[in-house]
C-alpha cells in the first residue's frame, strides 16, 4: 500500500470509529503525538487512545488537503462542525511509524463537548 493509500485508509477507519483497524496501520512501536496531549507510544496504546476518543460519539474527518512526499504525508482536515486541524504521518515499510497532529483543544471542546481524547 502506498503512503497515500495508507492515509486514505486511515481516514476511512477513523470515520468508521474503528480503533482496532486504525491501530493495525501503525508499527508496533509507533508514536502518535497529538501536540496538545502527551505522546502515545505503541500500537496497543494507540488503539486505546482512539477507543477513548470515539467513546464521545462519532467523529468525521473530511480531508481538505493530502500532500504526500515519499514516506511523509500531510493531512489538513475539518469536520462538519467546523473543527479543523492537520496531521503529519511518517510511513515506513507500509505502516505508520510517527504521527503528529495539531489542533485547538478549545475549538474541539466547543465543537464536540463529549469528546475527550487521551
From TrEMBL:
UniProt domain SnoaL-like: residue ranges: 7-97
InterPro entries according to UniProt: NTF2-like_dom_sf, SnoaL-like
Annotated Gene3D superfamilies: 3.10.450.50
Transmembrane residue ranges: none
Protein name: Nuclear transport factor 2 family protein
